From TrEMBL:
The active site is at 245. PROSITE patterns: ALDEHYDE_DEHYDR_CYS, ALDEHYDE_DEHYDR_GLU. It comes from Duganella radicis. Belongs to the aldehyde dehydrogenase family. This is Aldehyde dehydrogenase family protein. Residues 17-471 form the Aldehyde dehydrogenase domain. GO terms for molecular function: oxidoreductase activity, acting on the aldehyde or oxo group of donors, NAD or NADP as acceptor. Transmembrane segments: none annotated. Keywords: Oxidoreductase. It comes from the Bacteria. The lineage of its organism: Bacteria, Pseudomonadati, Pseudomonadota, Betaproteobacteria, Burkholderiales. InterPro entries: Ald_DH/histidinol_DH, Ald_DH_C, Ald_DH_CS_CYS, Ald_DH_CS_GLU, Ald_DH_N, Aldehyde_DH_dom.
């Protein structure tokens, strides 16, 4: 039984959750405590009690702790990756890479802890100096989704601690295993009791308590648009700082002058790897007419080579969908696309394998219209559509006609079009001849329009959310 970490103590909850393997529903990954609202409030109180001491504990101490966590994640990437693949369903290779990414993130923020920058300016008044410094915001509530059970917690927890905040972490209910393993490492990193707290439990209970608590100064959330909006409405009433990363409907433009191998590679990786369960996934291929038939043909051929199966099998390229509800959503969208008149040219059906799991053959629709639901709504699974475009300008208009703006990609050999796209794509992240998904860990992450709210995550830009600015005037 895996307990919650509250105020430096491992405490069991009033209920438990059985964590099942989506590649093999007969396999129990582990049993995890589920906190109630009372325990959530205890964790918040512990983080609140610890916040002043931690804010002044010094940057060396923060750097040592973060470096310890990063080093252990990197050392144990194989076994923690296996755990992650077992509970979430991404392939072992993807899961090991995710743990390594989390390790690098902690290492990066160990360095950032030492680089607390400020400004010194002259005053407009004589004999006065102005110092501008950054201070921690206090208790940070971290609410994460199931699709990156290690990397997303890492890129929120590491900067929170690096900039001197205390943390209450609520992972997604579906993936407590990676969260608990990460918390266990953090518990041995030398942080004072209460600086980091793990509260596994339901979003509507534990998450809600965090959103409502006046002691939680800032909330960093990744997940669905619906939950993000609800969270913001509540937290804004008490003027908490909020950062939301939500959905995407990311376009990949393929122009006539694109290298076809590169375009197909970007499309396959971007849309279907990690079973399409990435907010950065490409789900709309917007393809110029001159290359469209060849692109669709090559995509069908490539899709036919992909091995769908148990996440731990060495030959698997596409693991199972994360759970029954997500599989239902994916299959429903396949039916919606058919009803809307798009042409299903590959996959789209549930698959049987040796073990009982949520397997699905990746789906590709051709001849989709930009206004169709499959071209407008986030599906969050291995389902994508190809939309023909008359020319680059037409493709750009289609790409931008979306409520989302997380990533946008283009495959082209034209410098002119690539440069134009970087300036005019309505997205927080733009990719030229690289997949829309799979980003670096040391540069900003976030979107425009309905995809994101608040300051950017990751890299040194994370300071914006996890600190508050103080301006001091001194007359000697
Ligand atoms: N942008 C992204 O990266 C992601 C997008 N999604 C999208 O969201 C859809 C649904 O996925 P789902 O996991 O249900 O996403 P949710 O937005 O419901 O879950 C994200 C996190 O928020 C928590 N949460 C849920 N309700 C509340 C609440 N009232 N107060 C505070 N926290 C809450 C969840 O907890 P709990 O797990 O206990 O419910 C989880 O930790 C997907 O199909 C996909 O379209 C999903 C995951 C990631
Ligand atoms: O594409 C990536 O590397 C990150 C994706 C992500 O953050 C997400 O899907 O939530």
């Amino acid at each position: 039984m895996h307990a919650n970490l509250i105020g430096g103590e491992w405490v069991t909850g009033p209920t438990v959750r059985e964590n099942l393997n989506p590649s093999d529903l007969g396999e129990l990954v582990g049993v995890y405590a589920q906190a109630d609202a009372v325990q959530a409030r205890q964790a918040i109180a512990a983080a609140s009690d610890a916040r002043h001491a931690w804010a002044h504990a010094g940057i060396q101490r923060r750097a040592i702790a973060l470096d310890f966590i990063g080093a252990e994640l990197l050392r144990r990437q194989q076994d923690l990756g296996t755990l992650l693949a077992r509970e979430e369903g991404k392939t072992l290779a993807e899961a090991v890479a995710e743990v390594a990414r989390a390790g690098h993130i902690f290492k990066f923020f160990a360095g950032e802890a030492l680089r607390q920058r400020g400004d010194k300016l002259a005053s407009v008044r004589p004999e006065i100096e102005v110092d501008i410094t950054r201070e921690p915001v206090g208790v940070v509530g971290i609410i994460t989704p199931w699709n990156f059970p290690m990397a997303i917690p890492a890129w929120k927890i590491a900067p929170a601690l690096a900039y001197g905040n205390t943390v209450v972490f609520k992972p997604a209910d579906l993936v407590p295993g990676s969260a608990w393993a990460l918390a266990e490492i953090i518990s041995r990193s030398g942080l004072p009791a209460g600086v980091f707290n793990l509260v596994m439990g339901r979003g509507g209970v534990v998450g809600q308590a965090m959103i409502e608590s006046p002691s939680v100064a800032a909330i960093s959330f990744t997940g669905s648009v619906e939950t993000g909006h609800r969270l913001l409405a509540t937290a804004a009433q008490r003027r908490a700082k909020v950062q939301l990363e939500m959905g995407g409907k990311n376009p990949l433009l393929v122009l006539n002058d694109a290298d076809l191998d590169t375009a197909v590679d970007c499309a396959i990786q971007g849309a279907y790897f990690s079973t399409g369960q990435r907010c950065t996934a490409s789900s709309r291929f917007i393809v110029e007419k001159g290359i469209y038939p060849r692109f669709v043909q090559r995509m069908q051929e490539q899709l036919a080579t992909l091995q769908v199966g148990h996440a731990l099998r060495p030959d698997t390229q596409i693991g199972p969908v994360a759970d029954a509800a997500q599989l239902r959503q994916d299959l429903d969208y396949v039916a919606i696309g058919r009803d809307e008149g798009a042409r299903l040219v590959f996959g789209g059906e549930a698959l049987q394998r040796d073990t009982e799991g949520y397997f699905m053959r990746p789906a590709l629709f051709a001849d989709a219209a930009p206004a169709m639901r499959i071209a407008q709504e986030e599906i969050f699974g291995p389902v994508a559509c190809a939309i023909p475009a008359d020319n680059y300008e037409h493709a750009l208009d289609i790409a931008n006609a979306s409520p989302f703006g997380l990533t946008a990609g283009i495959c082209t050999s034209s410098l002119r079009h690539a440069a134009h796209f970087k300036r005019h794509a309505q997205a927080g992240m733009v990719m030229v001849n690289v997949p829309t998904a799979g980003v670096d860990y040391h540069v900003p992450f976030g979107g425009s329009k309905g995809s994101s709210y608040g300051a950017r995550e990751q890299g040194s830009y994370a300071a914006e959310f996890f600190t508050t600015v103080k301006t001091a005037y001194t007359k000697a």
